[in-house]
Design a protein that fits this description.
six-stranded antiparallel sheet, Hypothetical protein af1432, 725 residues, Arp2/3 complex 21 kDa subunit ARPC3, alpha+beta, 3 domains, Beta-Lactamase, 6 strands, elongated
């Protein structure tokens, strides 16, 4: 069923049919008008061009083909030129799509192509259709004058005259068409487009984008067109071959019938009792001359007959009784002996015995001939000679080629029209719906809720209603996408809940560890905030682009609270000692890095979705390594230290410096920043330290916000102050 848009439903279809009929009338009317005034023009393609340009390939082909078929009533040969009109229609639409009718100077460039199709191809069609002779159309007088000059043969006389007239005709046609399409309103032109949407109509940009959809090997429409084309070509070849064979058979039968009748008429004209007398009396006898005149009249009344003769068959050859040549200029001499040709060797015994002979086809001295022999009997019913009539088989071949060209021209025009109709029908019922679904499915994005909803809406807005398997596929696809979105939304909610629970557990675990160190959790919050700030700024400034993906940033930010999880294995005596740690105690404290790595490693082993813990392990294990290799527990240096641990090192040390300890007050912000600067390239990654210092205002804001929340005297663990401050 027709959809909304420029299709217009059934009423729109009727309107278009009416206008296409008007274009046919324009073709016929203009053609009759120029014929009435004897102008050297055809103007039978103006309506075809307009229908093709304004309506599309199919309307143009229908108008062109039907115009020639209807013009058959004025001149039967018009029907055979339908293929030329179809080719002109296709070419006109192609040039229009390529923008040649946008400007007048570009439209003029199309005239030689149209003239070639109408003039050169039309001339070739005329030449073969008229049996390698001149046609009978408008160009005939010009062609005859060229031929009479003796400078060109029939072929070139026809070609030159047709091309010259068609060049003039197509020039006038293009000018008329260009003027019309420029004054026709856009809305009217849009209404003429022949569509048959089975879905929400696509605009020009969407159609172009749909056509550009990549396919694995060949588009479905190409395969279907190839199959339809191959089938039609096969049918055309078989049908044409059968038609040609039938025509040849029928033509031979008709010529045989004509030759037999003429031979019988000649036999009845010749007096069998006088044949022997003619050889004695010669041609001077009155009845001989009278019989010769009768034979000449028979020959003149039978244009298909090439030779008429009467032979008396004797062992030494054929003795001439009467002989008329093709030009009827002179008769063969009575009594002349014509030797038997080799092609007659099988028939000589029958001819000598006076038997009836079946019509024969021979190719000998006198050419390729169909010959009929009719016995001439005397009053005793004895065969005294044979009356013969010959028809040239070359004429059969010439007529056969003319017939074949006519059949091919009619079929080729019809073939193109049917093929284009199949393409048009297939586009709206198959390829457009499938391509539109494919295009919508490819644009279905899972980035966010808005993209998901937009993808579902894009599918639902297609409203495909082909009433067949395509519509069933569309309904299933639409339902599947809708259910998929609902499922994804549910999964997203559950994932968010799991992530919140996971992050909550991380903070709880970290708080448990820090609470053993008499901490309120302020250190966890601040270091995490500094880590998040550094991750964001490093990405914004274009550092470590191969590492800093959104997923990586998420994992590091959420793993930061676990950097001191190994302290759970440190003794309370060491962890909560009110003063500085001695060397032995500090060595025990340093073990919290390895212990933290083991704890997270064990957690990763028992979880099937533990990839996010990999960076937690790196941070816990390496956040006390130093860029120059003087850190612990492994003495790694430079890029050997994971980026997440290098970021945590800056954040952890800075917070240790500015935070108050039981054994020291918090350092001034500016002094702490100077220590970070001084440690660049030694303790800290120079890039990370540089970016941290550049974010001084935002770092200060984080520090101040947490100071307001937790107060200025929060306590912190030992090893940061001991080893770095």
């Amino acid at each position: 069923m027709e959809k909304e848009g420029n299709s217009g439903g059934f009423k729109g279809f009727i309107k278009r049919v009416v206008f296409y009929g008007l274009f046919i009338l324009i073709n016929i009317g203009l053609n009759r008008l120029v014929s009435l005034f004897h102008l050297p023009l055809f103007l039978d393609s103006v309506g075809t061009f307009l229908a093709s340009i304004l309506g599309g390939y199919l309307p143009g082909i229908i108008v062109g083909y039907c115009s020639n078929i209807i013009n058959f009533t004025a001149d039967t040969s018009n029907a055979y030129y339908a293929v030329i009109s179809v080719l002109l229609s296709v070419t006109a639409r192609y040039f229009y799509d390529k923008g040649f009718f946008d400007k007048f100077h570009k439209a003029i460039l199309t005239i030689p192509v149209f003239a070639f199709i109408g003039g050169v191809l039309g001339s070739l069609l005329t030449y073969f259709m008229y049996g390698f002779g001149l046609g009978e159309g408008i160009s005939a007088p010009f062609a005859q004058s060229l031929l009479a000059s003796g400078k060109v043969n029939v072929f070139f006389a026809q070609l030159i005259s047709d091309s010259a007239i068609d060049l003039l005709d197509k020039s006038v046609t293009v000018v008329i068409v260009f003027i019309v399409i420029k004054i026709v309103p856009e809305k009217f032109a849009s209404m003429l487009a022949l569509t048959h949407w089975k879905q929400k109509p696509l605009n020009k940009e969407e159609i172009k984008e749909v056509h550009n959809n990549a396919s694995r090997k060949a588009p479905l429409r190409t395969k279907i067109i190839f199959i339809i084309g191959a089938v039609m070509v096969f049918v055309a070849c078989v049908t044409t071959a059968i038609s040609y064979i039938l025509y040849q058979t029928f033509a031979v039968e008709q010529y045989t019938f004509t030759a037999k009748n003429v031979a019988s008429l000649v036999a009845s004209t010749v007096d069998g009792d006088r044949v022997d007398d003619y050889f004695e009396e010669g041609t001077t006898s009155v009845d001989y001359a009278d019989t010769m005149n009768k034979l000449r009249k028979i020959k003149a009344s039978s244009p298909d007959i090439k030779y008429i003769y009467v032979y008396k068959i004797m062992p030494d050859g054929c003795h001439v009784v009467f002989d008329l040549d093709t030009e009827e200029t002179e008769a063969g001499k009575l009594g002349d002996i014509v030797e038997f040709d080799e092609s007659f060797s099988d028939y000589i015994p029958s001819l000598l015995s006076g038997q009836e002979i079946e019509p024969m086809i021979t190719d000998d001295t006198y050419g390729w001939l169909l010959t009929c022999y009719e016995p001439v009997y005397n009053s005793n019913h004895k065969c005294v000679c044979y009356a013969c009539a010959d028809i040239s088989m070359e004429q059969v071949t010439t007529n056969g080629i003319s017939f074949l060209v006519k059949v091919l021209s009619l079929f080729l025009g019809f073939f193109i029209m049917i093929l284009v109709y199949c393409m048009w029908h297939m586009q709206f019922n198959l390829t457009y719906p499938i391509d539109a679904m494919t295009f919508a499915a490819r644009k279905f994005a899972y980035n966010n809720d808005e993209a998901l909803e937009k993808g579902v809406d894009r599918i639902n807005e297609l409203k495909i209603s082909t009433g067949d398997e395509i519509e069933t596929l569309y309904d299933s696809l639409s339902k599947t996408f809708g259910e998929t979105v609902e499922y994804l939304e549910d999964v997203k909610k559950k994932s968010e809940e799991i992530a919140k629970m996971q992050n909550g557990l991380i903070y709880i675990m970290a708080d448990l560890v820090e609470s053993r160190d008499k901490s309120t959790g302020d250190h966890i919050k601040k270091t995490t905030a500094y880590v998040e700030l550094l991750l964001r700024k490093l990405k914004e400034k274009g550092y470590f682009t191969d590492i800093l993906t959104d997923e990586y940033i998420y994992e590091v930010a959420n793993s930061a609270p676990l950097h001191d999880v190994g302290k759970i294995k440190v003794s309370d005596l060491v962890l909560n000692k009110p003063g500085r740690l001695d060397n032995e105690e500090f060595e025990k404290m340093k073990m919290h890095t390895k212990e933290g790595g083991k704890i997270i490693e064990n957690a990763m082993k028992i979880s099937s979705t533990s990839d996010y813990l990999k960076e937690a392990e790196n941070i816990a294990l390496y956040h006390h390594e130093k860029y120059d290799g003087s850190g612990y527990p492994f003495g790694l240096k430079g890029d050997e230290i994971p980026l997440s641990a290098r970021i945590m090192a800056v954040s952890d040390v800075f917070d240790a410096l500015v935070s108050a300890r039981v054994y020291k007050p918090g350092m001034k912000f500016e002094d702490a920043m100077n220590i970070i600067k001084e440690g660049s390239g030694k303790h800290f990654d120079p890039i990370v330290a540089k970016v941290f210092v550049e974010c001084e205002d935002e770092v200060r804001k984080i520090a101040e916000e947490h100071k307001k929340i937790y107060g200025e005297n929060s306590e912190e663990g030992k090893e940061d102050g001991e080893s770095q401050a």
